């Protein structure tokens, strides 16, 4: 009998996704210590194979440290376009079968199968879907199933590599109890160290601490930790098609054909929503640019891109789209930029060829923007755009000069 609060949630995780794609491209890499990331000493490890992990290597580790631990490791620079392509292939397979799914990152999915046991065996159905994904993509997939998202994710981690594990309803707390506290999602080094100083090392111990005491220690995080330790998670599976886009547009006070100004405005707008993207811990897989001309004709163009949230990559794509769209004989009334096909993820995975300094720079910039507002730290060109916008009432004469210079016969 299905209880009102009994759910069935499956979690799919593409094992060592970037590494698996590299091994698919080059079979000789299988079973070897493989690092995906930049090749310079200042680069970081974006992903590593299970064979490399045996040497103590992990993602986000400086590449020079990783090579010191495993000098014979093989390095691949990373191909975000290829990873994005495979992520979309997996998404299409799941979308064609699952009644309700959430794409929580480039390589992770939650499926809500509540009530399916009335018609099918949920575990059998999900196992068959896992086999289908592996057969069609030639990539390994681990599967966890439980009554909520948090426990299903932990089950997936325990099933790795390339396995599956189902936790029966009512057994969530028993399953989690013997584990180290670090196994609970969102318990990082700092939280773990804080708990261990108080003698809390296992999930069982954490679950037995009164919720009021944990709240006194850690505020709201203490309440969330107590729930997780007791196998409680009410968070819903959010349908992937409901993922919202992030966009911005600007209607100018005076129509313009000034390319320098328009490019500066594109920089400003891209930086603005790029910061929003990173603030929400999202990556975008599609960029759209919109132009409205003085005759009110509106045109848009979009392109699918490798998942990213890095301004320098997004700016390149936005400018490319704008240059394809722009009709130089018409004045522009409005331009807009939109990022869609959003997935959760850390923008650092896009920085395969960048150094720790580049990653640190992004983090420092976003920290300042978070404290004082995104507009307080922008590229110089975008500052110029805001200044020129104030001069828009005087733009008409400039537009006429530009038109006469560009099209002397018109």
Automatic annotation (TrEMBL):
Enzyme Commission (EC) number: 2.7.7.7
Domain annotation UmuC: ranges: 9-188
Protein name: DNA polymerase IV
Binding partners and assembly: Monomer.
Gene this chain is encoded by: dinP
Annotated site residue numbers, Substrate discrimination: 18
HAMAP family per UniProt: DNApol_IV (MF_01113)
UniProt entry keywords in alphabetical sequence: Cytoplasm, DNA damage, DNA repair, DNA replication, DNA-binding, DNA-directed DNA polymerase, Magnesium, Metal-binding, Mutator protein, Nucleotidyltransferase, Transferase
GO biological-process terms attached to the record: DNA repair; DNA-templated DNA replication; error-prone translesion synthesis; SOS response
Pfam families, per database record: IMS, IMS_C
Function description: Poorly processive, error-prone DNA polymerase involved in untargeted mutagenesis. Copies undamaged DNA at stalled replication forks, which arise in vivo from mismatched or misaligned primer ends. These misaligned primers can be extended by PolIV. Exhibits no 3'-5' exonuclease (proofreading) activity. May be involved in translesional synthesis, in conjunction with the beta clamp from PolIII.
Species per Swiss-Prot/TrEMBL record: Chitinophaga cymbidii
Family affiliation: Belongs to the DNA polymerase type-Y family.
Gene Ontology cellular component terms for the protein in this record: cytosol
PANTHER family noted in UniProt: DNA POLYMERASE KAPPA, DNA REPAIR POLYMERASE UMUC / TRANSFERASE FAMILY MEMBER
Active site: 108
InterPro entries in alphabetical order: DNA/RNA_pol_sf (IPR043502), DNA_pol_Y-fam_lit_finger_sf (IPR036775), DNA_pol_Y-fam_little_finger (IPR017961), DNA_polymerase-Y (IPR050116), DNApol_IV (IPR022880), Rev_trsase/Diguanyl_cyclase (IPR043128), UmuC (IPR001126)
Protein residues bound to Mg(2+): 13, 107
Catalytic reaction annotation: DNA(n) + a 2'-deoxyribonucleoside 5'-triphosphate = DNA(n+1) + diphosphate
Localization (cell): Cytoplasm
Co-factor: note: Binds 2 magnesium ions per subunit.
Main location per the UniProt record: cytoplasm
Gene Ontology molecular function terms on file: damaged DNA binding; DNA-directed DNA polymerase activity; magnesium ion binding
Cofactor(s) demanded: Mg(2+)
